[in-house]
Amino acid sequence: MGPFEKHVFVCTTGSTCPVEGNSVDVHARLKELVKKAGLKTNIRINNSGCMDQCGNGPMIVVYPENVWYCHVRVEDADVIFEEHLVGGRPVERLIYRPLKPGANKIAKEEPQTSGSSTGQS
Ligand code: FES
Fold it and tell me: Which CATH number does the domain 6-94 belong to among 3.40.50.1240, 3.40.30.10, 3.40.50.300, 3.30.70.20?
C-alpha cells in the first residue's frame, strides 16, 4: 500500500486543458477542500502534464480506482471531492469514457512558443 489512499492528477500544464476550462482553479479547489477537511495525509492532489486526451478537458484521474473525469469545471471539484474522494462513489455524470484505449486527442496540443511565433524578422 502506498503513502496515500487516493492520488488525484489534474492536467494543469498541458496546453489545452487549462484553456478548455480552468484546470488550474480545479486543482486549487481540490487542494483547498482536502486541506480544510484535514485529509492531506490521505489524499494527494497533483498537477499533471498532458494525459493524451486533449479536447476532452479539463481532465482529472483518480487512483487507485483509475477513474477519469472530463470537462471538469471548478464547481465540479466540490462534487468529486464529496462524492468520490470522501464518499467513495465516483461521479457518474463526469466519468470519461474514451472511445479506445490509449491516446484520444481531439484537439492538438499547441507547440510551446517563445518570442516571435513566425520565425521571421
Ligand atoms: S492538455 Fe490535458 S489531456 Fe492533453
Answer: 3.40.30.10
Q: What is the pLDDT of residues 78-103, one digit of tens each?
A: 999 999 999 999 999 999 999 899 99
Residue 26 is predicted with a pLDDT of 98
| 10 touches 60 (CB < 8 A) | yes
15 lines ligand 1 (CB under 6 A): yes
Q: What's the chain's Rg over C-alpha atoms?
A: 16
Using most ligand atoms within 8 A of CB, pick from 10, 59, 112 the residue to mutate for ligand 1. Answer: 59
Q: What is the pTM of this model?
A: 0.88
